[in-house]
């Protein structure tokens, strides 16, 4: 899904090999409230469900060019990066 969106945004073809869709993996272990759609629950849900942490999406679109990054931005970045590996 992310690759499709990125290709659309860049107006370019993106070739992806050996990628793993984390949402499909998580869906195999999901609670029964997904209504059969693994994409109905986003990363924020999975971070809270699996790690017990809140991924505050407010910081997703914050000003990442401004330095220094806030503590909240750093936490968001860490959780966003580590969540798929946990």
Give an overview in words.
The protein is 42% helix and 0% strand. With 86 residues, it is an all-alpha fold. The longest helix has 12 residues, at 71-82.
Short description:
The protein is mainly alpha-helical and 86 residues long. It contains four helices and no strands.
Q: SSE string, helix = H, strand = E?
A: HHHH
Gyration radius over CA: 15 Å
Which overall shape is indicated by the principal axes computed on the Cα atoms? Answer: flat
Measured as a percent range, the helix fraction is 40-55%
Helix vs. strand class? mainly alpha
How many helical elements? 4
> How many E-type strands?
0
List its traits:
flat, 86 residues
Strand and helix map with partners:
Elements: H1 2-10, H2 22-27, H3 43-51, H4 71-82
């Amino acid at each position: 899904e992310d690759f499709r969106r990125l290709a659309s945004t860049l107006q370019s073809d993106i070739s992806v090999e050996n990628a793993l869709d984390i949402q499909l993996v998580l869906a195999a272990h999901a609670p029964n409230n997904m209504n059969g759609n693994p994409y109905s629950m986003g990363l924020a849900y999975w971070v809270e469900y699996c790690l017990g942490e809140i991924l505050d999406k407010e910081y997703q679109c914050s000003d990442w060019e401004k330095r220094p990054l806030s503590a909240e931005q750093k936490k968001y970045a860490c959780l966003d990066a580590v969540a798929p590996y946990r």
